Amino acid sequence: MTSAVLGIAIGALAGRWLVDAQSRADGTGSGIAHPPSASVLLTLVAGAVLAALVPAARAVRRRPADFLTETM
Questions:
Q1: Is the pLDDT of residue 6 over 70?
Q2: Alpha-carbon Rg of the chain, whole angstroms?
Q3: Are 12 and 41 in contact (CB under 8 A)?
Q4: What is the DSSP letter of 60?
């Protein structure tokens, strides 16, 4: 969950920086990028957490020895 929150935050900041850098390069001017709203960011975080719950729940139900017997 921490990685999802951190990744979304870094992605939002990097996206804003990239849009501003591109707009400066093509002469439009910086400051045209707008960060996503808080509701969009919360929806992304909630979706990432829910998506991580399925494999986590499967891993919790298995014994560690079961993982050692699997072959790739």
A1: yes
A2: 19
A3: yes
A4: H
The DSSP string of 23-40 is: HHHTTS-S----PPPHHH
| Predicted TM-score (pTM) above 0.90 | no
Question: Rounded distance, CA 56 to CA 46, Å?
Answer: 15
Distance CA 5, CA 35 (A): 15
Buried b or exposed e, range 1-37, using 16+ CB within 10 angstroms: eeebeeebeeeeeeeeeebbeeeeeeeeeeeeeeeee
Tokens of 24: 């400066």
Average pLDDT over residues 59-63: 84
Token duo for residue 55: 């494999």
Q: In this structure, which amino acid lies at residue 23?
A: S
